[in-house]
Amino acid sequence: MDSCVIPLRHGGLSLVQTTDFFYPLVEDPYMMGRIACANVLSDLYAMGITECDNMLMLLSVSQSMTEEEREKITPLMIRGFRDAAEEGGTAVTGGQTVVNPWIIVGGVATVVCQPNEFIMPDSAVVGDVLVLTKPLGTQVAVNAHQWLDNPERWNKIKMVVSREEVELAYQEAMFNMATLNRTAAGLMHTFNAHAATDITGFGILGHSQNLAKQQRNEVSFVIHNLPIIAKMAAISKASGRFGLLQGTSAETSGGLLICLPREQAARFCSEIKSSKYGEGHQAWIVGIVEKGNRTARIIDKPRVIEVLPRGATATALAPDSSNASSEPSS
Question: What is the pLDDT of residue 10?
Answer without folding.
Answer: 84
